[in-house]
UniProtKB/TrEMBL annotation:
Keywords: Cell membrane, Membrane, Transmembrane, Transmembrane helix, Transport. GO terms for cellular component: plasma membrane. Belongs to the 4-toluene sulfonate uptake permease (TSUP) (TC 2.A.102) family. It is a multi-pass membrane protein. The keyword Cell membrane applies. The keyword Metal-binding does not apply. This is Probable membrane transporter protein.
Amino acid sequence: MPDFSTNILLSIAVFAGAFVSGLSGFAFSAVAGAILLRVFQPLEAVPLMMACSIGVQATNLWALRRNIRWEGSLLLIVGGLIGVPIAVSLLQTTDTHLLRRGFGIVVALYAAYMLLRPTLVTAGEAVGRHWVALIGFGGGLVGGLTAMPGAIPTIWCDMRGMPKSEQRGLVQPFIAAMQLFAIVLLVGHQDLSSKVFVDLAISLPALFAGSALGVIAFHRVNETVFRKTVLVLLLVSGISLI
């Protein structure tokens, strides 16, 4: 494929993924990967998506900095940092295909059921710190196996009926930290091609434009539309793992 056409597809993929992630807080790889994994080899596409996703998360964190709930996020992050290395060990010693497929089925069924519910739940009582850390551990463990670190914390927030700003303020730093940790582990295990850095530079305008428009859309949609958007993305992400 000519370089010009490849660069156009790269920009389209990154813009779409960044917009969706800016709106919902996650799912960059699920959207952008649908194109990038067809255009590039996995050894180039995966680190490129991880680097772009970290850029999107950094933009989201800055744009939503007033909503960040650092205490709860730090508890999630501590639990996640314990879960990720365990997932990496499982990937090296165990066939995790069935685990990923089973998790995809659970996420898809949950999202489909919640989309059909006629009413929203209200936020529950405060939970203990150990429970928050446990959710983070589950997110880190599953994220290491499926590249979806935000799935479990997002589902947990949805089950508790958190408002969109509170949910993003809690989960956004966790996803950013897990992705940064993951790319550090990836770099430690393999050498990155110089082409990844060139493609990243080419995609930056689309990345920041998509992120900015996604954050603007997040502020403008109401709670119901935001929740349905998140559930649809969870449904698509779950199906992609089956």
